[in-house]
Amino acid sequence: MIKLMNLKKKFGDTWITRGVDLDIPDNKMTVIIGRSGEGKSVLLKQIIGLLKPTEGQVIIDGVDITNLSEQEMNLQFKKFGYVFQFAALLDSLNVFENIAITLLEEQKMSPADALPIVKEKLALVNLKEDTLYKYPSELSGGMRKRVGLARTMVTEPKILLYDEPTTGLDPVTSRVIHELMFDMQQKFKMTSVVVSHDVEIFKFADYVALLHEGRILYFGDCKTVWESDNPYIYQFIRGLTEGPIQMEPPHDFGQVQQQE
Amino acid sequence: MILQFINYVGHTTLQLCQALGSFVLFFYKALLTLVTTKLKLSKTLAQMEHIGIESLAIVILTGTFSGMVLALQSYIGFQRVGGEQFIGSVVALGIIRELGPVLTGLMVAGRASSAIAAELGTMRITEQIDALRTLRIDTFQYLVVPRIVAGTIILPFLTLFAMICGVVGGYMICVYVLGLSPEDYISNIRIYVELSDITGGLIKATFFGLILSWVGTYKGFFTEGGARGVGMATTQSVVTSSICIITSNYFITKLLEKM
Known about the structure:
Chain A has about 260 residues and is α/β, with parallel strands linked by helices.
């Protein structure tokens, strides 16, 4: 369903991805791991079409989405759900309006008709109805991520992309989010791609890919990843300082983003 | 040395052309969205309140004091040649044709254009604009067009308030401070101020409203570089829209003169 072919992305003079080749299995959860600043989020944004790759192809259901027009891309977006790193909830809207935004604005549904659907999605992410009319500033980090997830589930996507879903959360909340992601995966059988640093997610995901220096250096089953003798994945998941992965990331990603 | 200079000039010119092109294309896309999609009326009205109603106090204050100081300065000049009876028309023409639209434009640029840039800039760096895109919401229809339409519509109304307050401010100074007769002030305005002066001022205001909302949305929409980027976008929106208002004022005046 998702095929990345020789995907390269350059910001200014710096190459972020240098030829990513990856076939993401259908209806499974695949985790992309790698050091901070490796360009995992950039890769995810290229998969959904928010960033255009400098070279290479992103094939979704047999269609190369890298050169689609805005209208054609809008059709592709129907397949996708994207859970942002910090949820990206609209500050000026309450939880109900955030979750219902596609129903109200794109499908022209009335708020009364949208309410049962929003309540259903809210229950799906284990949030109580009393959060419906709260604003994002009144929610905790974990609650925001769950609202973000509920918002993407409204469109019932076939492909769900998570950008570091547990960053900044405590271990207990991280576990809750992982379990929620797992439940959703079991229930809806979507193709999920998760960018994460958190090795705990291996308990819930199906496959793992390691992005290092702009290329995928390992791809394998989450169940057997701890037994792998690939030196890169061995070092990374154990957090070892000795090994082929250098201490310093290849580029300062903060500066790179500003160059863009 | 010479090559370096040529390289610098060429690079700067290219950057300037690129920025200008992107600025014009942004407006073209907004215009296309306005024509091809339905206007989000509730969002436009909310922006009109945000840009207009919330700017009313500073516009009234600016208009009133500008009228007052214009009356005071005119008096000093006219007293020397014995033409005090003309103060009313001078204050009214000055406020209606020039000071009203320009000062309102500058004040609203400082208050609303910066607020638009800061709001959209924050939405950009916190990925809210990307989120809208992934949710298949047309970001131009949802965010850009309501702000540009609201700014363009509301500025003539604010200017009208500034004009009225300026003329009243001038009246207060002439009658209660300088001791001139109210009839002289009002009759002079009636004789010398024409409807075309008022419509000309309002046409200018419409254009200034378009400029400040266009600049604010453009700077905010393309913000990058975190909190510092938002700060820069905010400052740039005020500086750019103020410069555009002041320079375009001359050309619109010239154009209106010929019509």
